[in-house]
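Researcher: Predict the fold of Target of rapamycin complex subunit LST8.
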Amino acid sequence: MAQPSVILATASYDHTIRFWEAESGRCYRTIQYPESNVNRLDITPNKKYLAAAGNPHIRLFDINSSGHQPIMSYDSHTNNVTAVGFQCDGNWMYSGSEDGTVKIWDLRAPGCQREYESRAAVNTVVLHPNQTELISGDQNGNIRVWDLIANSCSCELVPEEDTAVRSLTVMWDGSLVVAANNRGTCYVWRLLRGTQTMTNFEPLHKLQAHSGYILKCLLSPELCDPQRYLATASSDRTVKIWNVDGFTLEKTLIGHQRWVWDCVFSANGEYLITASSDTTARLWTLSTAEAIRVFSGHHKATVCCALNDGPEYLSS
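Model: Structure tokens for Target of rapamycin complex subunit LST8 follow.
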């Protein structure tokens, strides 16, 4: 089976993962996932594997196979896995869970390599571009930086007491971090490098982005520069695109009929994929804020999406 250069996958409460042709909108592969809902998807940088975060496990699927069985299972979480992602070379994976832990997994070895205790249900984890710090946000409103070299928590902050941090995102060059919460607010910090490896957070902006929950926030990728955007997906059925220079509203993406749970930029930042409770995923062109493709096939809420349309790497 020839591998498409654009890997697009969605998962739904209908217990399936679907792969789509981005251009035509055709679903070309469906994986049944009967054991639990899938909360998050991510694709390895080399486009070989798809990680599906479920409850309480993570399954790794071969993107180039037509089989339904995962090639690897990661099983030491004890509750919903809410975050999953890969290191830039694809050598290891990180995850966060409602069991209150952040974990690191070596893809070449079974079992969990490291575990960090957040003491509250973890909703979101992102890897700093330096590849040596993980940042987690939890249900109690804590943001923590986990220094992978020192193997400890190097920084803790609480932007708003008792307000869950729903989503975190870091600018590709490590200059900004944004946290979105259940009250529709985004907190933005500049990241200042101290003399140690600790990341210092300097408050930059507080953005009241939506009246409902923000379910996902995401900063635009490197190839989008010099334009820099923040996307916020909300329970108010919209996705808003903010210009990071001043945090002015650039575009509002209107079309989903229910909550928008997830979004992901194309590699060049010109397009956005969204996933919604209305059962669809959509491909938007950001220049016109129009949905140019609707991906229909799921029977229940589509809650997560993953896209890798980056350049082809020569690495095996």
